[in-house]
Amino acid sequence: DLQRHLNVLSSDSLEGRETGKKGQKLAAEYIKNHFKNIGIPPYSKKTYYQKFKAESDRHICKYNCENCDEDFITKLFKKKRTVKGENVLGFIKGTDISDEILIITAHYDHLGKHDTLLFNGADDNASGTSAIMEIAEAFMIAKRQGKGPRRSVLIMAVAGEEKGLLGSEHYTQNPVYPLENTVANLNIDMIGRVDHYHDTSGYIYLIGSNMLSNDLHSLSENINKKYVGLELDYTFNSEDDPNKYYYRSDHYNFAKNNIPVIFYFNGLHDDYHKVTDTIDKIDFKKMEIITRLIFLTAWEIANREERIKLK
Predict the structure, then answer these.
(1) Closest C-alpha to 302, from 67, 14, 68, 93
(2) pTM exceeds 0.85
């Protein structure tokens, strides 16, 4: 199933899923239909979408701006523009602590198509999007068997991440469910590859797990030790990490609102933000193991007696 979802999301027909463009709309429709097919109802007014419109000053060009000189990017490339997108919400109501909510996120947008260059974004972040779609299905299977989560779970595919975390920012500024009732955010962004610093696939970087909650950090460690046994790498788990990963994905908008977070990330590789980030390079066994870890962590958060404690 992970491979099936990723094959669609990273296909040429979705044209790189740039927020506001045709491919992003097609990806949103695919995710929405998956939520519908597994039995998740629309969250409001017969819609799965939370639409947003925001200003972005990020511009993706064929010269791979992320590696360009900053001054060169600024007068030549960066332009303010209005971006329209949709977050896709799959809300699974809890059984007996339903006013408390766990949010699981992954951004489904990517860099799009520019001239003849098409950025498929298989690892970034069709991998994380495929994972949350399967996690949603696992929760719904449990719910149909009368064993649904005690707390509500919001599975949210967000757009606009590549434009400046726009979709998650819009949600936290216009929350569909009260932020004070949100117990944690688990965010998945790139889980299908091996980075420059590892020789094997049996690891995942965790970022933010103990920034706001030692309780969340301990829970995460215990679940991994008991069920999965991955190497949990905390190399980038620092606010002063020179790469600034803690600030660079959608979890940060929740952390800014004092909501405990974990960011799951496999690190950068040679195909990051390039046209070569394609499905043939994805390690699906790695994806499966990490997705299982995240689901089991989410299951524990959603079902334990006490909500996650802040430091």
Answers:
(1) 93
(2) yes
